[in-house]
Structure formats: C-alpha cells, structure tokens
C-alpha cells in the first residue's frame, strides 16, 4: 500500500499538472461519465492520509484510495487507456487512476462527515502535524493490549504510516515491534510520531525512500533502509542479522533487529 509520502508526492505532481485546468471528460468506474462536470475547473488536489482528493468547481470532489496496487498515470488524451477506476481528461492530457481500492465522486461539503475520512487520525505530513492528537489517540485504553507495530498502521490513530515506515520508525526509537501499546509512555509516543513525521517529510522529494543517512551507509547507493526488507542481513548498527515475522490480521511483514530492539517486559 502506498505510504503517506507517496500520496503527497502524487498530489503535488497532479496539482501542478491539473489545478485551474478545465475538465473535458470525467469518468468514474461505478458511475461512468459525469457530463455535468464537463467544462468545470479543477480547484485543488491534496492528499489526506492515504486518500487522494481532487476538488472540482461546483462543489464536487473525486476521492480515490489507491489501496495496495493503485497507480495514477498521465497519458495523451488520444492514447488507448487501460481499464480505469477513474479518468480525468483535460486538453491533451488524460489522468488515469488504475487498480484503485476505491474511487468515488462526492459532494465537497460532505467530506468532513465522510465515514472513511472522518475517522482518520491526524495526517503526519500536514503543516504542522498535530502530534499531540496522535499521542492522545495512541494512548487510548482500547489500544493498550495491541502490539505497537499494529497501532502504528491504524490510520485512525495517525494517518500516513505504512509498512515500511512502521519498521523503520520502531528501529529508530529502539522499540520491539511486539511491545504492548500500553507500555509506551506519552513521551515515547511523542518521539515515535515526531520520528514518523520527520522520516516521511525527508522523503517527499525522492522516489527512493531513505532512512539511513548517507554517512552511515557502507557504500553509496546501498542500504537506504535500516531494517525493512533486510531479513538475514547484518544490522547497520550492531551486525546482528535482521529478523522478519508476519504480524497482525493481515500478516504484514515486520522487520527488526533483535539486539537493538530487544524485547523488555
């Protein structure tokens, strides 16, 4: 699933290409073409957590959630297009959303109450992010018995963290991924979300996600991540082999260093 920084990069690129342009054609998979929006202009493109929102003149918003495999492609309007979740044509450009988990056209005024958006925790790439709100949500008694790695993926706590950042954040803070959330202090949660916001913001300008500073890499271009996808390789801090296990209801891969992130009762 695309992480928060990926969605914000997509939103920036789409905003630069689409904002203030006139819509010649808009199609949404379930509804087909929406002719009443022809001739309207695109007012704003933004990311909210892992949701991409395209606001259209006249009080409409196209909401997409890319899910695990979704992508946005820019094609020539006359080019043959793949089966799409949504397609927006402006002049000679066609912006095509493919393989999205969800695409729908809704009233902009209804966004605040939308069930998928209203429950989102604070976006960690907002300026500034509401870290205190994220800490309050993470500290709720309902999460106390959950493992911290699962809580970090819960978009109701804070939105934007995905599987890569989950593992990288916990390594940065030297926290074992199976630590119960109830054992994490408010100060530790603050550090966790501060780290999350910092790592994601650092990667807004690059397609190759990085958490390891250049000076700490064994050689240029190598080992951009501390633990993610490095099972069996030596920890860049202590040399202990990185371990991986499946975690949560969806059996998402979690990577960690058993020495740097030793589990404590």
Which key phrases capture this entry?
265 residues, alpha+beta, 11 strands
Q: Which sheet architecture does the biggest sheet show?
A: 5 strands, antiparallel
Classification by helices and strands: alpha+beta
Q: For the CA atoms, what is the radius of gyration?
A: 20 Å
Shape: elongated
Mean pLDDT: 92
Low-confidence stretches: none
Order of helices and strands: HEEEEEEEEEHHHHHEE
Number of alpha- plus pi-helical segments: 6
Alpha-carbon distance between the two ends: 32 Å
Strand order of the largest sheet: 2-1-7-8-6
| SS strand fraction | 15-25%
How many beta-strand elements? 11
Helix share of residues?
10-25%
Structure description:
This protein has helices spanning 4-18, 115-118, 131-138, 148-153, 163-172, 186-202; strands spanning 25-28, 32-33, 42-48, 51-56, 60-65, 71-76, 86-90, 93-98, 102-107, 243-247, 252-256. The strands form 3 sheets. It has a 5-stranded antiparallel β-sheet, with no helix packed on it. Strand 10 and strand 11 form a beta hairpin. It is built from 6 helices and 11 strands. Helix content is 23%, strand content 22%. By secondary structure, the protein is an alpha+beta fold.
């Amino acid at each position: 699933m695309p992480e928060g920084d990926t969605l914000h990069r997509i939103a920036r690129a789409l905003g630069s290409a689409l904002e203030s342009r006139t819509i010649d054609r808009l199609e949404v998979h379930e509804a087909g073409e929406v002719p009443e929006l022809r001739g309207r202009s695109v007012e704003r493109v933004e990311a909210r957590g892992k949701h991409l929102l395209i606001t259209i003149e006249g009080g409409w918003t196209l909401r997409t959630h890319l899910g695990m495999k979704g992508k946005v492609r820019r094609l020539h309007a006359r080019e043959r297009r793949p089966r799409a979740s949504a397609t927006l044509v402006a002049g000679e450009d066609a912006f095509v959303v493919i393989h999205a988990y969800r695409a729908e056209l809704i009233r902009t005024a209804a966004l605040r109450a939308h069930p998928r958006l209203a429950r989102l925790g604070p976006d960690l790439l907002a300026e500034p992010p509401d870290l205190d709100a994220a800490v309050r949500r993470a500290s709720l008694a309902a999460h106390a018995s959950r493992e911290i790695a699962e809580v970090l993926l819960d978009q109701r706590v804070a939105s934007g963290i995905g599987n890569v950042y989950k593992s990288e954040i916990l390594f940065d803070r030297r926290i074992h991924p199976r630590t119960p959330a109830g054992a994490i202090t408010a100060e530790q949660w603050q550090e966790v979300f501060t780290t999350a916001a910092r790592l994601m913001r650092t990667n807004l300008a690059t397609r190759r996600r990085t958490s390891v500073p250049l000076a700490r890499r064994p050689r240029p271009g190598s080992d951009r991540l501390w633990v993610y996808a490095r099972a069996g390789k030596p920890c860049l801090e202590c040399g202990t082999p990185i371990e991986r296990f499946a975690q949560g209801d969806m059996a998402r891969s979690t990577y960690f260093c058993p020495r740097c992130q030793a589990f404590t009762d």
